[in-house]
Amino acid sequence: MDEIEARRDLAAAFRWCARLEMNEGVANHFSLALDDAGQTFLMNPAGKHWSLLKASDLVLLDASEEPDGVGTGIDPTAWAIHGALHRKHPGARCVMHLHTPYATALSALADPVLPPVDQTTMRFYNRVSIDMGFDGMGLGGEAERLAGALGNHRVMMMAQHGVLTVGSSVAEAFDLIYYYERGARTYMMALQTGRPLNVASAEVAEKTAQQWEEYPDGWDAHMRGIRAVLDVEAPDYAH
Fold first, then answer.
1. How far apart, in Å, are the Cα atoms of 37 and each of 72, 78, 104?
2. Does residue 138 have a pLDDT over 70?
3. Which of 66, 178, 40, 209 is nearest to 165 (CA)?
C-alpha cells in the first residue's frame, strides 16, 4: 500500500465526516494498517479537529507496543480499541469508529438492530455484529471484548456507544459507515411517524444485500468523488 496515498485517503475521510457532521468534536478515530500483517497502522492524533486534519498529521503506531504519548498526543480509548482490533483482525486494514447522530440513537434502543426497511438498510441485512456488553469507556477489557465481538462482519453496532466498520481500504470502511448512518437516519425518521414499518422479506433483503456487495466500483468511486471536491476546495488535506 502506498503510504502517501493511504494518508491522503484517510485525511479525506476525516475532512468529509467533519463536513457531514458525522464527527463528535475532536473525539472518535479512524485507523489504517500499512503492513501485510496489519499491525503497523496510522491513526489521527488526539485533539486535532477533523476539519483541519492533514495527511501528515496522522500518527504511525505499532499494535504490538503501547506508544509513548497515550493520554496526550494519542487518545487512550483510541489506542485501546484500534490497537486491539488491529491485533485480533489483521485483515481489517481500515477501522472507523464514530458516534454519528442516528446510529448512536439506534444504539440507545433496547433493540439496536437496523431492519431492512429500504434499499440502504437492506445493504446491512444479517451483516452487522451487535455488541450489547457496554461496560464503560473503551479501555482495557472493554476494547478486547469489542475486538472479539466483531466476528467476521464488517460492521458492528456498539450498544449505548456508536458504530464501527472495518474494510480492506479507507474507501470501503468509509462507504460502509456513511451508508450505515444514512440507513439509521431513514429508520429513525420512519419510527417517528408512528406508522407501521414496511419491512422487506428475508428473500428480498438478502437479494438486495448481495447486489450491494456486487455493485461495481462503488466505494472507490465514492472516495474519488470526495477527493475531487477536496482537491478543489481544501487541497491542504493532502499535505
1. 27, 20, 32
2. no
3. 178
Of residues 64, 74, 2, 52, the one with CA closest to residue 32: 2
Task: Band the pLDDT of 188: cuts 50, 70, 90.
Answer: very high
Q: What is the pTM of this model?
A: 0.95
Whether 139 has a pLDDT exceeding 80, the answer reads no
| Alpha helices in 76-123, H assignment, sequence order | 76-88, 101-107, 119-122
The number of residues making up the chain comes to 239
Cα(204)–Cα(212) distance, integer angstroms: 12
Instruction: Please check whether residue 155 is in contact with residue 213, taking contact to mean a CB–CB distance below 8 angstroms.
Output: no
Q: Which pLDDT value is given to residue 143?
A: 74
CA distances from 183 to 22, 101, 121, 177 (A): 14, 12, 5, 10
d(CA 3, CA 51): 21
Three-state SS for 36? coil
pLDDT single digits (tens) 25-34: 888 999 999 9
Measure the N-to-C terminal CA separation of the chain; round to a whole number of Å.
18
d(CA 216, CA 223): 14
Q: What are phi and psi of 97, to 5 degrees?
A: -130, 125
Rounded CA-CA distance 199/146 in Å is 29
What average pLDDT score do residues 152-167 get?
A: 95
3-state class of 162 per DSSP? strand
